[in-house]
Specification:
alpha/beta; 7 strands
Length: 163
């Protein structure tokens, strides 16, 4: 049975089972983005600012535990601007993230990734930048970024042959 949109959702938990984030923040592959990320305000400060503006929703995708309104308020975040999508509801992570970043309704998208998800991060990064969405990925602890083995290539050609 579905719940009418006019009624607030029933909270299944009074407190969070685990405080979040419990995973490390994913590294951005593009060095240019890494340089600009070091100049950004701290994540919590930015979420507080976004939650009190009218720029869009703060979307939490698959957070560990259930965020609680009182805990969000204690950190200065307006819980009325926060939406949560639970991981069992997600069938296609890439498509869901593309839609979230490109729909114009989100000011921030924070995603806690499961271990076996492969994403086109370049495409997601471009979408986030184009629409001005604060985007963060939290990787499972102990997950390393893929290491490229073999010769460096661009467009199928060894880059050392081009110089």
């Amino acid at each position: 049975m579905s719940q009418p949109m006019s009624h607030p959702p029933f909270a299944a938990s009074v407190s969070m089972s685990n405080p979040w984030p419990t995973r490390h923040q994913g590294k951005v592959e593009d060095e240019r983005l890494t340089a600009s990320a070091s100049q950004e305000p701290p994540l919590l400060d930015e979420l507080v600012r976004l939650s009190h503006g009218d720029t869009g929703w703060i979307l939490l995708i698959a957070p560990p535990g259930l965020p609680v309104a009182k805990q969000l308020q204690a950190q200065g975040i307006n819980p009325d601007r926060v939406l949560v999508v639970h991981s069992p509801k997600i069938k296609n992570w890439q498509r869901m993230l593309e839609q979230s970043l490109g729909n114009g309704h989100c000011a921030a998208v924070l995603t806690w990734l499961p271990e076996q998800v492969s994403l086109d991060r370049a495409k997601l990064s471009k979408l986030g930048q184009r629409f001005g969405v604060l985007t963060r990925f939290f990787e499972p602890a102990g997950t390393a970024l893929p290491v490229h083995n073999g010769a460096l290539a661009y467009g199928g050609q060894d880059i050392y042959l081009n110089h």
